[in-house]
Write a structure and sequence with these properties.
The complex is a heterodimer of chains A (317) and B (301). Chain A is an alpha/beta fold and 317 residues long. Chain A has 13 helices and 14 strands. Chain B is 40% helix and 11% strand. The chains are: A alpha/beta (317), B alpha/beta (301).
Chain lengths: 317, 301
């Protein structure tokens, strides 16, 4: 069988939940009227007694998830990232994180992956918000392989987890045999001139930019941070010391996401690398094809290439 | 009415006033708290813990126990008093309410207080959580029941109605909501701030079985809770007409006693009134010694 070159993380998520369910009888899946898009419908069809649709009521979705967890179940609660992080922010913080309940929160259609629906449905703040809640592990897979390993690790993790998911076909980056662990970042491309730190769908664009720049003799080191919180600071600082030039790239606001997290670590460690954040620059976006939006709002491959060149040029002045 | 039933009723009436004494002392000692809404729920809480709920103070994590979600989390003092009386923790902790390091937080923290089934305090969230617990029972094939105590003002939160809608949709007959309808909220009378009437009609429209009782009438509460066990497939709500600050003459129906410290003078006067009520019920305040497990009110402390 041919190994797929691209896959949609949301299918991978459900594939893995379907594999886990027979072994883990405490697993239950919840949705809020987006089960076609999120594909939780597939889980419903396979395990109808272990699925609840709460309708268009995200606050109740997460309250119910908290109650299920308190009663000994392992709930995976699925909605769009924008609703998980904002409509239900307080429920996540106070009913799930504060009592440290083992709810696995899936925020789908994150970043700009829902281009056509427009700004109301795009999530540029979810990492910033979720990162600020104590007791919450915050993760984002960069391909379908990591998605499967990540949800399995999340289900086994004793505590609340937020998993951001972008609903789009994305290149496979990791081999099936990859050993994923919560809290670990990964060097997906070694380099020496500049470190680019990223996560999620943006990682593939970063790697494409790195390929292009390699042709110009620029060796880009690419770090994937699938766990935003707790951040693998050791890996980050080691690379920062090596290259002295850091760029963060995310389909998220430049406020509060990975860029901010990396800043926090670098400055507290006493490092002063040349540093820049790529992300949505504190503006609302709009409707459009997702890739076109990424180009327009400064997180496309060309923007990444440009930012790296600029950072290296600054260094030569 | 048999003598057993009369004894149970008297026991619960006395217990409610004993809990009220502890609420007054607790809030006085702690320097702050919510007297009004704690006192209005005394009969409800006594009836739940000493008759209705299947609980065991020796096994606070017992998987088959009935659950209580105190959605009106600010009434924590009355529940803390009940838990102490039942023996979940030593009475000495009551005087540490809201102090740094206390197992008794200003609003329920289930990770700190033995016997608490859930963390709460931000109004509106509890019914959803209670619903989730009831669905969890269903998932596990267990028959424990889940109770959720809400305030009247709290039902102004939209999330409460999301939960109500879902509980009826999923036919969760093991879920019972109790609304402590004392008619007062922080900014004044309910009907002046944000009217919730026709209240019973709203619950019926959402598909719930509605039982309306005087929330200080123990026989009525006993009847209503028994009735909820017969109702299927709808969830049930007890709309309990109560008096905020019940039992203390200068607190009854006074808005300012929603949240307030209690001075030594106020404490002494309140305790004197409560002791008088206990005397007329045929007993004075007794101190529960040691843990008391078990199920039926007449069997344990």
């Amino acid at each position: 069988m041919a190994i797929p070159q691209h896959a949609d993380p949301r299918e991978a998520l459900i594939d893995e939940l379907l594999a886990i369910a027979p072994e883990e009888e405490r697993l239950v899946v919840l949705d809020a009227d987006v089960s076609r898009t999120s594909r939780t419908r597939r889980f419903r069809n396979a395990f109808p007694g272990r699925f609840y649709d709460l309708g268009v009521a995200e606050q109740n979705l997460f309250g119910v998830a908290a109650g299920l967890a308190a009663a000994g179940r392992i709930p995976v609660a699925v909605t769009f990232a924008v609703f998980a992080s904002m409509r239900a922010a307080e429920q996540v913080r106070t009913s799930i994180c504060y009592p440290r309940l083992s709810v696995k929160i899936i925020g789908g259609y994150a970043g700009l992956s829902n281009g056509k629906d427009g700004a109301t449905h795009q999530s540029l703040e979810d990492i910033a918000i979720m990162r600020s809640f104590a007791n919450l592990t915050v993760m984002v897979p960069s391909d379908a392989v990591l998605t499967r390993k990540m949800i399995r690790a999340a289900v086994a993790h004793p505590g609340p987890v937020y998993m951001r998911l972008e609903y789009e076909d994305t290149p496979i980056i990791y081999p099936d045999t990859f050993g994923f662990a919560i809290g670990r970042g990964y060097i997906v491309r070694e380099g020496s001139h500049v470190t680019v730190v990223s996560y999620g769908l943006a990682l593939a664009r970063v790697l494409a930019a790195a390929d292009l720049l390699a042709g110009e003799g620029i060796a880009v080191e690419v770090l994937d941070m699938p766990t935003i919180k707790p951040l693998d600071e050791g890996l980050l600082l080691e690379s920062a010391r090596k290259t002295g030039v850091i760029l963060t790239v995310e389909d998220h606001s430049i406020i509060g996401g990975l860029g901010s997290a990396v800043c926090e670590s670098l400055v507290e460690a006493g490092l002063r690398p040349r540093f820049r954040r790529l992300g949505i620059r504190d503006v609302f976006t709009e409707s459009g094809n997702s890739d076109a939006l990424r180009e327009k709002y400064g997180v496309g491959k060309d923007s990444i290439v440009g930012a790296i060149r600029d950072l290296l040029a600054e260094g030569r002045q | 009415m048999g003598s057993d039933e009369r004894a149970l009723i008297n026991f619960l009436q006395v217990k409610a006033y004993e809990l009220r004494c502890d609420v007054i002392d607790m809030i006085h000692d702690g320097g702050s708290g919510h007297p009004g809404g704690s006192l209005s729920a005394a009969e409800i809480v006594a009836t739940l813990y000493w008759h209705v709920m299947r609980v065991d103070s020796v096994r606070p994590d017992w998987e088959d126990r009935d659950r209580l979600v105190l959605s009106k989390g600010h009434a924590a003092p009355i529940v803390y008093a009940a838990l102490a009386h039942k023996g979940y923790f030593a009475r000495e902790h009551l005087k540490t309410l809201r102090q740094l390091g206390s197992i008794l937080q200003g609003h329920p923290d289930c990770r700190k207080t033995p016997g608490l089934d859930m963390t709460s305090g931000s109004l509106g969230q509890g019914l959803s959580i209670a619903l989730g617990m009831a669905l969890g029972a269903r998932q596990a094939g267990k028959d424990f029941r889940v109770y959720c105590l809400l305030s009247d003002g709290e039902t102004q939160e939209g999330m409460v109605w999301e939960a109500a809608m879902a509980a009826a949709h999923y036919r969760v007959a093991s879920l019972t909501a109790i609304v402590d309808y004392n008619n007062l909220q922080v900014d004044g009378w309910i009907h002046e701030v944000m009217g919730i009437e026709p209240f019973a009609d709203k619950w019926r429209a959402f598909g719930w079985e509605v039982l309306q009782v005087d929330g200080h009438d123990v026989p009525a509460l006993l009847w209503a809770f028994a009735r909820t066990r017969e109702v299927t497939p709808r969830p049930s709500v007890l709309i309990c007409r109560t008096v905020k600050g019940r039992g203390v003459s200068f607190m009854e129906n006074v808005m300012e006693w929603h949240a307030s410290p209690i001075t030594k003078e106020q404490r002494d006067q309140a305790i004197a009134e409560l002791q008088q009520a206990l005397a007329s019920l045929g007993t004075t305040k007794s101190v529960e010694a040691g843990p008391s497990g078990g199920r039926r009110a007449t069997a344990d402390g």
